[in-house]
Design goal:
It contains 19 helices and 5 strands. It is α/β, with parallel strands linked by helices. Helix content is 57%, strand content 6%. Helix 6 links the parallel strand 3 and strand 4.
Length: 394
């Protein structure tokens, strides 16, 4: 794949995020046993993983990589990374290894707390450098890891830098692309270099030497509405290529349409969410393997989740991050209502309208009671945050 064949081997060959890349070099250059691990935070496709591999190559380290979302339990983590604590006897004293835990935010706050605790213990005892990457920068469940790590913030790459980079890459590929097309790719990449390269490869491979035209690859804001209103699966699949969004944004758009629909039955909604989850799992595999040809199956999962169900695009005026926060907070509030109604033997409506505001106000002003409440109910930081949000501001 193009992304792999053009992956920079030197840290200086990357594009964008100069300051965090420099800090990464300083970290590994001065690393010694007892040093903090490094945590790279930022959206997908901005060079976090590539930076780790490039700096390891320059300093003579071999990278041992695991995806934290795949080895999320304490038992599995212990099986795959536990022996690294004894690396001097397992690998040999002259070998240099760097452990890379990608998608550390894939560990959930409650279900995988034992796995998170194991990682916290591991990074304090590791005898080799440990680098971690997260797609989230403001995740409560990562606060303990952030406190024990050197945190480097990676940002979306500037559009002009992506344009210059793509021009250089297309020249290496001996492809003559018009500047207008390269500019459109740069704009639509939204700071994601990996997505820009994959889109460049898609365009050049599908055109097969024909005259390039940017009109067929980019859509209007009505693309999603056009997809959802398709009368056949084949028609929708054809239109999906014109949906101007990165794969993760396609998942978010379809997901938002499913959860916000007031006409879909609960059975259909559950079936749709299952297909969306399969698409999300497949996308993670695609990102790890860089086998972007699997996107054809990814699109089919999303279409099976949405076509023929009378869905409409959700209100795009509400930013995705805000919609996601509302959704997550709503799930926690429902959890409060369910747990408290059983304990207090009153209806959920009474809990929501009367008891919960008073309880949240009481706990907000008594931190020790808040801590005991969270421990007794097996709650975590997300539940604390929502409880504080609910508390009346008086």
């Amino acid at each position: 794949m193009l992304v792999e064949s053009l992956r920079p081997k030197k840290i200086s060959a990357l594009v964008g995020n100069e300051n965090p890349r420099l800090e990464l070099v300083k970290w590994l250059r001065s690393w010694k046993v007892g040093s903090k691990p490094v945590l790279l935070e930022g959206p997908p496709g901005v060079g976090k993983s590539t930076s780790v591999y490039a700096v390891a190559e320059e300093f003579g380290y071999s990278v041992i990589e695991y995806n934290a979302s795949d080895v999320r339990t304490k038992k599995k983590l212990a099986e795959v990374i536990g022996p690294i604590l004894e690396n001097s006897s397992v690998f040999g004293a002259t070998d240099k290894f760097l452990l890379f835990l990608d998608e550390i935010d894939g560990l959930s706050g409650r279900q995988d707390f034992a796995g998170m605790d194991y990682i916290l213990q591991f990074i304090e005892e590791a005898s080799i450098p440990v680098a971690m990457a997260s797609n989230s920068e403001d995740d409560p469940k990562l606060r303990k890891i952030q406190q024990k790590s050197k945190v480097l913030h990676f940002k979306p790459v500037d559009e002009d830098l992506i344009f210059i980079y793509l021009k250089a890459m297309s020249k290496r590929m001996e492809e003559r692309l018009p500047d207008s097309l390269v500019r459109r790719i740069s704009e639509n990449a939204k700071g994601d270099v990996r997505f820009a390269l994959n889109l460049l490869q898609t365009i050049t491979s599908e055109s097969s030497g024909a005259t390039y035209s940017d009109k067929q690859f980019f859509s209007t804001d009505a693309a999603l509405d056009s997809i959802l209103s398709s009368t056949s699966f084949d028609e929708a699949l054809y239109k999906m290529r014109d949906f101007d969004a990165a794969p993760i944004d396609r998942i978010r758009a379809i997901y938002a349409s499913v959860v916000s629909s007031k006409t879909i039955s609960e059975e259909d909604r559950a079936a749709s969410l299952k297909m969306i989850s399969l698409a999300d799992i497949l996308l993670r595999r695609i990102n790890r393997s860089q086998n972007w040809r699997l996107l054809r199956y990814f699109d089919k999962y999303l279409l099976l989740a949405s076509i023929g169900k009378g869905l409409k695009p959700s209100d795009s005026a509400i930013p995705w991050n805000l919609r996601l926060a509302i959704w997550n907070d709503g799930k926690i509030v429902k959890e409060f209502l369910q747990d408290l109604s059983k304990q207090m033997h009153v209806g959920r409506g009474a809990i929501a309208s009367y008891y919960l505001p008073y309880l949240s106000f009481y706990l907000k002003h008594r931190p020790s009671e808040m801590q005991r409440f969270l421990q007794r109910e097996n709650y975590d930081d997300p539940e604390r945050r929502v409880m504080l949000k609910i508390a009346p501001h008086i």
